[in-house]
Design a protein that fits this description.
With about 300 residues, the protein is α/β, with parallel strands linked by helices. Helices cover about 35% and strands about 20% of the residues. The radius of gyration is 19 Å and the shape is globular.
Length: about 300
């Protein structure tokens, strides 16, 4: 399904994220007035966004500093996330901050909240639907605040949709990657440094990576399907790919061996039922091998064999 947005004023939060929010903001800015919300600690980074038609605006959800955000916004794309691993900070940023943002923009046409498939209770190779049990997915991955604060954020988004009659979409994103990097690129960096790459003991460690191109292409449709109550949808690629698969392919591309080590302190598989996404939003289009080859070419072309 192809949907586009033009002539709108759009706020994209967490805009400095290289893999997700940044490419979304750049794409939307071609036909809209886009404001990029972030803390902007690196002033030099602003120029790249300005050159691509995105107006940087400062805000801080942890400190509840939203005064500089613009008025007259039509759509909000909320990608900002706090991963400090400190409970008070992450609850203030991911949960209370979202409540403040929805209150601030309660009259927009649609509010898109980017959640994560890290909200699902680990359950082997179960294919998770949107109604599957939620749980503490990331604690063994040394991110004890992440899953819980993201589950709480979903509750806030559901409340905000009803409280303000605000059309809302909550999309649970699997593994984002693209020319800007991503988790597979982190694994390649480990390989290049001669480090071991951890895989879960319940092999293979299967996920459904979603390329930045597909993220960009589906955001307008995710805004279009926003509803009250909030529309909830899994957001991942059609290809089921394991860490074992993609490290082997990265090794094939670069000639760098992948030293895999089985560990209980890494993520279990998160396989998705994408029926609702396919019905409401559409399918992914980027083949995972093509996407990962492009990722390496963009990030570390010196490592490619050809």
């Amino acid at each position: 399904m192809t949907t586009s947005i033009s002539g709108a004023r759009i706020l994209v939060t967490g805009v400095t994220s290289e893999v997700v929010a940044k490419p979304v903001a750049f794409a939307l800015a071609k036909e809209n007035e886009v404001f990029g919300g972030a803390r902007w600690k690196n002033a030099a980074a602003r120029s790249v966004f300005e050159e691509n038609g995105v107006t940087p605006v400062r805000f801080d959800l942890v400190k509840a500093e939203l005064d500089d955000l613009p008025d007259g916004i039509d759509y909000v794309c909320h990608f900002a996330v706090v991963k400090s691993n400190k409970w008070s900070v992450d609850l203030d940023g991911n949960v209370a901050g979202l409540a403040l943002l929805m209150e601030r923009y309660q009259n927009v046409k649609a509010f898109f909240h980017c959640s994560t498939t890290a909200v699902y209770q680990p359950d082997g190779h179960t294919e998770f639907s949107e109604d599957s049990p939620l749980g503490d997915n990331h604690r063994k991955y040394f991110m004890e605040t992440y899953s819980i604060s993201k589950i709480a954020a979903e509750a806030v988004a559901r409340h905000g949709a009803r409280r303000y009659n605000l059309p809302t979409t909550i999309a649970r994103l699997n593994v984002p990657y693209g020319d800007g990097g991503g988790w597979p690129m982190f694994h390649l960096a480990q390989m290049a440094a001669g480090q071991e790459v951890a895989v879960n003991e319940d092999a293979p460690s299967v996920f459904q990576p979603l390329h930045s191109d597909d993220i960009v292409a589906t955001v307008p449709r995710l805004l279009e399907i926003a509803g009250v109550p909030a529309t909830l949808v899994n957001w991942g690629g059609d290809d089921k790919v394991s860490v074992e698969d993609w490290t082997a392919y990265l090794s094939e591309l670069t000639g760098i061996p992948a030293k895999l080590v089985v560990s209980e302190n890494t993520l279990q598989s998160v396989e998705l039922n994408l029926d609702r996404m396919h019905e409401l939003v559409g399918h992914s289009t980027v083949d995972w091998k093509d996407g990962m080859r492009r990722m390496v070419a963009a990030q570390r072309p010196d490592l490619l064999k050809n």
